[in-house]
Amino acid sequence: MSEATLAPHDPRAFRNALGAFATGVCVVTAEVGEERLGMTVNSFSSVSLDPPLVLFSVATAARGIEGWRQAQHYAVNVLAWNQQDVSNRFARAATDKWQGVAVETGVTGAPLIAGAVARFECRAEHQYPGGDHLIFVGRVLRYDLPRPDAEPLVFQAGRYRELTKDHDMTVPADALWLLGW
Question: How far apart are CA 46 and CA 40, in angstroms?
Fold first, then answer.
């Protein structure tokens, strides 16, 4: 089948199909000059173990895109299941996102959200155009697991989900493809 015979692109249907993939929820934070940046993302992924690289993406139409382009350091905060309010707060534009949010300052100067499951402090390494998004790749300089036993906040099909079952399913040691490495 050639690409010419495929159905026309339907952005809403494509988004719905992507929504079938469950993701964790993160808040990416940075400080650029006197301005604190923060936004909710589910486009977070590992890139490399050596060197330690991660990525996230931002819509090029986002109000804060210029601040993110300028950020030399940022933190990715993996939210816990009970941090839906934090996710909702940082998902909205033009609000005081930081009021009432407990933060610490990381070694890079980026704000770290208290109560997160894991936090990755990064140095900006690369920016790549990706259609209507800009892909940011960061080198992890420091990470921590403040709540290693907490359940993560999960998003799928347009809503938050709760992990409800532990399945005792062993991943074969040689199945590195499953882990992406």
Answer: 17
Q: Which residues pair with 104 in a beta bridge?
A: 112
Task: Report CA-CA distances (Å) from 78 to 26, 56, 130.
Answer: 4, 12, 23
Angle at 132 between CA 129 and CA 136, to 5 degrees: 40
| pLDDT per position as a tens digit, 41-70 | 999 999 999 999 999 999 999 988 999 999
pTM value is 0.88
Q: What is the DSSP string of the chain?
A: --GGGSPPP-HHHHHHHHTTS-EE-EEEEEEETTEEEEEEES--EEEETTTTEEEEEEETT-TTHHHHHH-SEEEEEE-BTT-HHHHHHHHSSSS-TTTT--EEE-TTS-EEETT-SEEEEEEEEEEEEETTEEEEEEEEEEEE-SSTTSPBPEEETTEEE--------PPPTT-HHHHT-
Question: Which of 62, 34, 10, 51 lies closest to 139 in space, CA to CA?
Answer: 51
Task: List the CATH code of the domain at 23-63+92-136.
Answer: 2.30.110.10
Query: By the 8 A CB rule, do 59 and 14 touch?
Result: no
